[in-house]
Amino acid sequence: MPIAHEFKYLKAKSLKNAFALMEKHPNYQVLAGGTDLICAIKEGMISPEAVIDIKGLKGLSKIKLSNGELSIGSLVSYSEIIESRTIKSYFPLLKEAAEKVASCGIRNRATMVGNICSAVPCLDAGAPLMVYEATVVVEGKDGERLIPIKEWFVGPRKTSLKAGEIVKEVRIKEPALKHGIAYDKLSRYEGEDLAQATVAVYLDEQNNYRISFGSVAPVPVRASSIENLLNGKALSAELIAQAKILVAQEISPITDIRATKEFRLHMCEVMMERSLKRAQMMLGGK
Amino acid sequence: MKTQIAFTLNNELRKMDVETNQTLADALRYLMGTKSVKCGCERGDCGSCTILFNGKSVRSCLILALEADGQEITTLEGIKKPEEEMTPLQEKLLANNSFQCGFCASGMIMSLTPLLKKNPSPSEEEIKEAIAGNLCRCTGYEPIISAVKELAKENRQQKEKSK
Ligand SMILES: Cc1cc2nc3c(=O)[nH]c(=O)nc-3n(C[C@H](O)[C@H](O)[C@H](O)COP(=O)(O)OP(=O)(O)OC[C@H]3O[C@@H](n4cnc5c(N)ncnc54)[C@H](O)[C@@H]3O)c2cc1C
């Protein structure tokens, strides 16, 4: 099927060239893996005048860990995240989440940065990046900006990226303490489906907790009331029961084609309990 | 407006004149004649347009034909060795009667081929993961999975014998 809408295809030769192209064609869309963008153009959701392909840009395809900080370039695919030894060893939450995205044939193209740029509420990368307190590095013709992930997501399909800017990389500081993690995704069937709800959990040896939910609010949520309750305390059945009561305050799920709000709320409680226990087991070396 | 691109298709250097808004699936079918590439859902859900892009399985319905410029593309037509009639995977699928209507077959094979290259004896879980994004509406997947399991078992035995 040819695409009904016509557009110019421009391949950026450098970041500077990309900024110039964006200025010349204000109604542009950046193209990375294309798994969201091509769908959106086909379905008539967007009609850009120009599609600017950034896959030829140098220096955006690396996964690097140096001085305790991880950098994931914006052209790194989900498959590359899954295969990375660095990510497996030091940022396993990202690997767990990446494995839950779509199918192999999509993950071989789809980038994590494209995922957070599309910023649909059901995205898989949201909760893990909130838990890791990631920073999004963007650049435009006036220079670079560092955006903390909690300020990145503004609303459904809305981010704090400005016109004329490109995301270069996502940075994450390596957690200093020994810790356990868990990611859980609820979907209608195993295999390939978008999330009904997601939860990401981090728990360290000094009983610091970080919990984030996705697909149950307009943007990924950091559950601070639950973290405040848990911080400094060892996990127990009683504590988990108290934490579960707070979930309803933190999230605002809706009923849609994939699930009802009641089911989403209930499953967030269940998945948080499972994830806390799994993170604790990992911390204990099991 | 048409643009000419040059790329490798099934180990041959090829050129094609493509429209900006033409998908790679479309160009491969109608300009290159590689009809194994099926256009199904057109949104990455069904897997019937799966090809190898620089050796990796991808959905060609979500790629612009222009993106193939300078790249290496493999379709079902290009996976067998010259001396073979078909690949061992295809032999096994045939012997097991794995497909009914056959619409999903080339996509399934293109998703399984890189898996078997990396790991000639995958587990059932790994087989299922490789075809998680390939829909089959006839068979219920069982005869496909069991054919690959059979091949995996034979490959494992072969390897043990040669030790
Ligand atoms: C069949 C199918 C299943 C899917 N399943 C899942 C799933 O399970 N979970 C999930 O979270 N998502 C899923 N998705 C959505 C999609 O695959 C992801 O959102 C993917 O990560 C997008 O990355 P991309 O590189 O393909 O982005 P593209 O489509 O190239 O771009 C997406 C958007 O981000 C912008 N963009 C991309 N890179 C940059 C950059 N560096 N700077 C500025 N803007 C940029 C683009 O302009 C565009 O607006 C699925 C999609 C399909 C088709």
Q: What features would you describe in this structure?
A:
- The complex is a heterodimer of chains A (286) and B (163).
- The model of chain A has no long low-confidence stretch (mean pLDDT 96).
- Chain A is α+β, with helices and mostly antiparallel strands and 286 residues long.
- Helices cover 35% and strands 24% of the residues of chain A.
- The relative contact order of chain A is 0.11.
- Chain A has helices spanning 15-24, 37-42, 78-83, 85-90, 92-99, 104-107, 112-118, 126-131, 149-152, 224-230, 237-250, 261-283, and strands spanning 8-11, 28-31, 50-53, 63-66, 69-73, 135-140, 143-148, 153-155, 158-159, 166-173, 179-186, 197-204, 209-214, 221-222.
- Chain A has twelve helices and 14 strands.
- Chain B is α+β, with helices and mostly antiparallel strands.
- Chain B has two domains: 2-78, Ubiquitin-like (UB roll), CATH 3.10.20.30; 88-161, Orthogonal Bundle (DNA polymerase, domain 1).
- Helix content of chain B is 34%, strand content 17%.
- Chain B has five helices and five strands, in the order ββαβββαααα.
- Chain B has helices at residues 24-30, 88-95, 105-118, 124-130, 142-161, and strands spanning 2-9, 12-19, 50-53, 56-59, 72-74.
- In chain B, helix 2 (88-95) packs across helix 5.
- The A-B interface holds A 1-9, 31, 34-35, 38-39, 41-43, 51, 53, 55, 79, 102-106, 108-109, 190-192 and B 3, 19-23, 26, 39, 42-45, 47, 50, 53, 56-59, 61-64, 66-67, 111, 128-130, 132-134.
- The structure holds flavin-adenine dinucleotide.
- Flavin-adenine dinucleotide sits between chains A (29-37, 39, 54, 74, 101-102, 106, 109-111, 113-115, 117-118, 123-124, 161, 166-167, 192, 194) and B (43-45).
